[in-house]
Amino acid sequence: MAKPQLIKYDIGPTKLMPNSPKPLLLYKKAFLGQDGKIDPLLAFDTFTKNGWDVQWVTRYGRAQRSHYHDSSHETMIVLSGPGRIRWGAADLDDDPEKHTYGDAYEPGGIEIEVETGDLFVIPAGLAHKSFDPGAKGESYGCLTGDAHGIEADDPRKLVAELALQGFMMMGAYPRGFTWTWSEGGAHLGNFESIWSVETPDCDPLLGNSGGIRDHWEKPTTQC
Ligand SMILES: [Fe+2]
């Protein structure tokens, strides 16, 4: 696999969302073979080798609530697309049609169309909502359990055998970190505590040789 192109996005705080002084990293065409098809097991094994444990595979519906993780960074790889992700903005209404397709969300974020092979490395605090405007239902949910671990005797086998359809991503978190779900306004006046969540030693894709080691904080330890 050639070294994928890296794109950085700086998304600072809004009124309700901490977001992050660390950039969002996007690698294009990660884990794509010569045939243009993705290799989910190669992604799974690379994340695991680099100390990021896969905890879910999800198929997205028409809407998701904007959220962030206050105690962990996260990585997500698009296994099947296209899909859309809005970054950095809080929802301002409970109605999914209004906060996803209307104007009931904060200014200050960005929205991008994503495709198979897009790999994101997301700093703690950065808000995101993932959705598929072409989906019929509002949500399909996690395909591998409760999203806090792959619930199977052989997690690799389950991931390898999942049918890829619609907008699907696989998510992983640095080993030893626990992820929780927070929505806009949950940490008002306390953004710094989230921005200081420790950076893991290894980039989920590049390990010791770049990514978060170059673009987040200079690590003091070896990956
Ligand atoms: Fe997330």
Automatic annotation (TrEMBL):
InterPro entries listed in its UniProt record: RmlC-like_jellyroll, RmlC_Cupin_sf, YjiB-like
Q: Which CDD domains match?
A: cupin_YjlB-like
Signal sequence residues: none
Q: What is this protein called?
A: Cupin type-1 domain-containing protein
